[in-house]
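name: query_chain
kind: protein
chains: 1
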Amino acid sequence: MEERQKILAVIPARSGSKSVPRKNIRLLAGKPLIAWTIEAAKKSRYLDRIIVSTDDGEIAAVAKSYGAEAPFLRPKEISQDLSTDVEFLLHALDWLRDHEGYEPDIVLRLPPTSPLRTTAHIDEGIRVLLGDPEADAVRPVTEAPKHPYKMWRVGKGGKYLEPFLPESFTHMEEPYNMPRQALPKAYIHTGAMDVMRTRTIREMRSTSGKRLGYFFMSPEDSVNIDSLADFEIAEFFMRKRQKQATEENGSI
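structure:
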């Protein structure tokens, strides 16, 4: 019988958010933002461990109170605005290996800023990677809200706009004036998670690798909080979800 793979979730939650101060523990629909991700991860049928990588003791304490592990504080030098995901993921992997002798086969990056991502999404991403031995990683995608063929940049001299993607790339005449339905489908990473083989992080120093699998998420589930306006949008959809759950359970 094939040995079960060890699967680790890493929830990144640094303290230095500037657009929404202390956003990782700011209340969303009655709970700290980070709690929604921890609770969804705890219900996964695949995850073995849930680690929070933070440079902040208060965030660590909140995370622990909701059932996540926070066995270390992330160094400040890899908790800056320009710090990369690979840096904190490698730090977490190295710490767990050096202090506990633990090395997972698969790692998930689960940012708290995607609170509408559900346990079902987490498990689907893991299943896609488990089902494709050649894939280096898996990401959720949704259709791009603005098609890249319709984007512009300011041309030389700064007076006129020019297409961001030239005709030599699109092979289409004036795609920016065409109906969206006539253009090839374009997708964006929702940002809700990355599902990666540990070797992709360690050997390739990447969160995507060369062979990147995918699955779809709805736009409503893909809200990514970067601003106060995003927080309000996420709160709206979370309250709507809670109301629907209550009605389905026959409580009202």
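note: Helices lie at 33-42, 57-65, 85-100, 119-130, 167-170, 198-202, 228-248.
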